[in-house]
Amino acid sequence: MKKLTVLVAGAAGYVLGARAGRQRYDQIASGTRRFMGNPKVQAAKQQAQDTIVEQASAAGSVVADKAKETAAAAAEKVRRNDDSGADSAAPAGQPTHRTTAP
User: Fold this and answer.
1) Are 44 and 38 in contact (CB under 8 A)?
2) CA-CA-CA-CA torsion for 66, 72, 73, 75, nearest 10 degrees?
């Protein structure tokens, strides 16, 4: 349903834009350039970029810490499973799996 909505909106925009012609397009483009060139808009844009960089750095640190914790927990779980499996699966010093020669 979302794809259909996007296609219908795109088609409507194309038809209306084609009817409006090049002159209206130029008016819209000129207005957009004036808006984006406004010092207040530029300041808000810069502030948003700075905030994103700051938050991305903080999020990256949190993700790295969580990844280390998860890896350590997984390694501990594997060690515990290896220790408990070795006691019941095979005598000490014996492999716990079979291998076949090629």
Assistant:
1) no
2) 140
Please give the single-letter amino acid code of residue 5. T
- Give the length of the chain: 102
Residue 76 CA from chain centroid, whole number: 29
Q: For residue 97, what is the DSSP state?
A: S
Place of tokens 């014996």: 94
Average pLDDT of the chain, as a whole number: 80
Contact present, 83 and 96 (Cβ < 8 Å) = no
What is the radius of gyration, based on Cα positions, of the chain? 31
pLDDT per position as a tens digit, 47-77: 999 999 988 888 888 888 899 999 999 988 8
